[in-house]
Amino acid sequence: MYNILSESHDNVVGIRVEAYMRPEDYDTLLPFLADLIDHYEIIRIVTDLREFKGVAFWGLLKTLPFAFKYSSHVAKKAIITDQHWIYTWVRILSPFFPTEVRCFPPSKVEDAWEWATK
After folding, report:
1. Exposure winner among 92, 108, 113, 114, fewest CB in 10 A?
2. Burial of 67 (C-beta count, 10 Å sphere; 0-12/13-18/19+)
3. For the residues of 25-71, what is the DSSP string, one character each?
4. Are strands 12-21 and 2-4 parallel, antiparallel or unpaired?
5. Residues sharing a CB contact under 8 Å with residue 15, sequence separation 6 or more, in sequence order
């Protein structure tokens, strides 16, 4: 499940993921992000994964076409997490996408927003 954060403004969107992302969550989140891209051309994302538990495999598969189509329209993605495996996957996958991605520990939430907004 996800929530759009109230700190979102203009082309900067904050997303808090709680527990598990299910395939139906992507059915609403991805069109929302596509609409933002249509409106602003370039967006920035802050993803709060402090309460993240996992993702359904079929949901994850839904993100692949979106990522390939729209990744050049996402300038920056800040990820807030203390899960080290996420840091590892960011390092592995980042070279394959034009989006600048950076992970922040939960104690640096404000830094994540500041970095993503610049």
Report:
1. 92
2. middle
3. HHHHHHHHHHHHHHHHSSEEEEEEEEEEEEE-HHHHHHHHHHHHHHG
4. antiparallel
5. 2, 3, 4, 5, 29, 45, 46, 47, 48
Q: What is the pLDDT of residues 63-100, one digit of tens each?
A: 889 988 999 999 999 999 999 999 999 999 899 889 99
- Does the model's pTM come out above 0.85? yes
Mind listing the pLDDT tens digit for each residue in 9-65?
Answer: 999 999 999 999 999 999 999 999 999 999 999 999 999 999 999 888 888 888 889
- By the 8 A CB rule, do 73 and 43 touch? yes
Phi, psi of 40 (to 5 degrees): -105, -15
CATH number for the domain including 14? 3.30.750.24
> Where in the sequence is the domain holding 72, given as residue range(s)?
2-117
Task: Indicate the number of domains in the chain.
Answer: 1
Q: Tell me the residue type at 11.
A: N
